[in-house]
Amino acid sequence: MGNPLTAAPMKAARWSAEHPWRAILGWIAFVAVAVGCAVAIPTHETTDADYRIGESGRADAMVTDAHLTQPDTENILITARSGALDADQADRAAAELVSGARTADGVTRVAEPQWDQDHTALLVSVELAAGADDADAVQAVTDDVQASYSGLQVREAGDLTIDAAINDRVADDLGSAETISLPITLLLMALAFGALIAAGIPVLLAASSVAATIGLLAPLSHLVPAELTVSSMIVLIGMAVGVDYSLFYLKREREERANGRTTLDAVEIAARTSGHSILVSGGAVIASMAGLFVVGDATFNSLAIGSILVVAVAVLGSITVLPALLVKLGRFVDRPRVPLLWRLNRRIGRGGISSRLLRPVVRHPAIALVLSGVVVLGLAVPALGMKTHSGTLDTLPASIPQVQTVKDISKVFPADEGASANVVVKADAASQGDVEEALRDLTDRAVATGHFVASGRGVQTSADGTTSMVVLGMPYVETDDRVNGAVRELRDELVPAALGDVDGEHAVGGWAAEDLDFADHQDGRLLLVIGFVLLLTMLIMVTTFRSVALAIVSTILNLASVGAAFGVLTLVFQHGWGSGALDFTTPGFVIDWLPLFVLVVLVGLSMDYHVFVLSRIREHVDRGLPTRLAVERGIADTAGVVTSAAAVMVSVFAIFATLSMVEMKMMGVGLSASILLDATLIRLVMLPAILVLLGERAWWPRRPQRPRGVEISEPDPAYALSGR
Fold it and tell me: Which of the 8 DSSP states describes residue 74?
């Protein structure tokens, strides 16, 4: 009993079991106070300044300080509904748009209508006042003009309308996912337990952990600003680990009661075994999520804080209020029973199906390892050619009208809606004339290369005359490989040539430059995060199991899981496999933040059941069983729990694959496919095959010894593998 990881959950569980009402009321008070924090303390969210990186970050800071930030703009595109565009009709419609927009609320300026080069489209740009919350007034003018000209297409898209449309779609998607995921989770828990109270406890504990974490995040956000998506991350991780931990604990407690233990004894044994696994698993998830700090990005810092906090809260609930609930409920936890599901659970028994699947693996471990390794390697190979890019118009649902409008505008007016870069110069006000002349010269040089087009805005100068800026458009879509090359040419050749004699500070910014700087910042970080996460999880495994061999095996299997996950993402979203079934058009790349996200979530969550399985195997080794038999019994004992835990995660993540946003599809496909593969082929085929092949060497440098005075219940002979 000298291991603090074993003693801590036992002490917490014993106190909770002996004082159940105190533990239950204490948990309710904790959740209530945490939720109250969110009401009393405003959440400090990230700002644009938190995302500044490299030269583009300096440019953005200079523009903001000089109050040269571009106002929110709504662009209204006029095209023919069919056939050739009637120029006279288009001019009349544009005149009505200009007249109506100038009197609309929140409008500061309306540009003169602008024809494209081929006279197939007309554009009206409307600038809104600083701080405008919406463009409803302008949209009303657009709708009125459209109603008056049935032969034309009059469409609006801009900073505010497209953001509002995307936010509405994301909210709808997340709302659908949450609505569907809760009943699916409850159904899977009912299948796992065959009783409604037992099925509801994991979901209730997970939900309360999520609520408490979101509440605690409010004060913490004043130390680490909260990113807008962090709440979704908390729900995603919190429900996964909260259900898993309760499932592990509850299954073991029911198993011990079925073997004749009293409820109190069963709770204590569950604390010593499953509680120990929960602490180790929680540590592994926290270590994995901590890898996000290595990136040094505001979004990942916020996601790391949220996920680490929800895991810690879920662990706390699993070793405190859960034992108290089990003691108070006693055998009523198995009520009310669902007759069909209850009989099915009893008939299948613990490990009934997995025993049949496991038998050929332990009989022919080398063959099983080679065959499973070939499958995993085959899935991982495509990851070597994975391309990443930030989200673009191509990754937004085409069903959003504003998205298609922006795409059409970028085709005919590339300087307005295509990729662009800003060149900012800060110098003494006395040299303002020289700076403006140099920027006009830069514009001519840039346009002459064919990679840039003049935006028509000219040189913009701050009120104090110290900061000047010119915007250069590009005749390319954001995903074009030539965009990065154009930015590098601008920085390395054009700007030094045109501004070399200007005495001042200059920087190249804008969306295209920000994407390039983010990519350069991320370059090599993925490998660094992988190394950091695997090293920490390896140290946890060595500390927990006192086995270097097991730590190395765990690391190799984690690498295999990550490689397969990246391969699946590449095949589906870069090469378009299954795009028809998933209802999306492949963008030809994987969105840049997803590999890191999938990596930390996959390693963290897979370590949950990995530790659980290994802990059960070691229990049997502690009892004196040879490794081969311990592997068989340990995996047979835990396969049902692992299957249930993985089924919850896979089903919830798979829901995201059905949503309309491609980013959510990527997350859903990557996580659901990889966890399904990890929980089956890797952990239930490769792991036992490797352990059987290693034999007693798996516990090197020393074989675990059974602690004196610790009594572990014998497995029910009905569950043992025949002939073993």
Answer: E
pLDDT digit string, tens, across residues 320-358: 999 999 888 888 888 888 777 766 666 555 555 556 677
The residue among 499, 540, 557 whose CA lies nearest residue 685 is 557
* CB neighbour list of residue 501: distance below 8 Å, 6 or more residues apart: 438
Q: Which residue in the block uniquely carries the two structure tokens 């920087």?
A: 507
Start-to-end Cα distance in the chain: 30
Instruction: Map residue 72 onto helix, strand or coil.
Output: coil
Residue in the structure block whose two tokens are 């709770």: 267
Could you tell me the pTM of the whole model? 0.82
Secondary structure of residue 389 in the 3-state scheme? strand
Answer whether 501's CB lies under 8 Å from 438's CB. yes
What tokens appear for 390 in the block? 């930030």
- Give me the domains of the chain, ranges plus CATH numbers: 1-40+194-348 (1.20.1640), 73-162 (3.30.70.1320), 351-384+527-702 (1.20.1640.10), 401-520 (3.30.70)
Number of residues written out for the chain = 724
The neighbour count for residue 346, using CB atoms within 10 Å, is 10
Helix (H, G, I), strand (E, B) or coil at 228: coil
Among 291, 294, 225, residue whose Cα is nearest residue 49: 225
Residue 340: how many other CB atoms lie within 10 Å: 9
Q: Which run of H or E residues covers position 559? A: helix 548-569
Q: Which helix (H) or strand (E) holds 125?
A: strand 122-128
DSSP state for residue 714 in the 8-state scheme: P
Tokens of 229: 């998506």
Residues 603 and 561: beta-carbon distance below 8 Å: yes
Q: 426 has which bridge partners?
A: 467, 505
Phi, psi of 388 (to 5 degrees): -120, 150
Q: Is the pLDDT of residue 718 over 50?
A: no
DSSP secondary structure letter of residue 351: T
Q: Which residues contact 528 (CB under 8 A, 6 or more apart)?
A: 294
Q: For the packed helices 511-522 and 54-65, what is the interaxial angle rounded to 10 degrees?
A: 140
535 near 81, Cβ under 8 Å? no
If you write DSSP's letter for every residue of 636-672 in order, what string do you get? Answer: HHHHHHHHHHHHHHHHHHHHHHTSS-HHHHHHHHHHH
Look up residue 232 and give its amino acid: S
Residue of 383, 388, 390 lying closest to 571 (CA atoms): 383
| Cα 206 from Cα 189, distance rounded (Å) | 13
pLDDT at 76 (0 to 100): 93
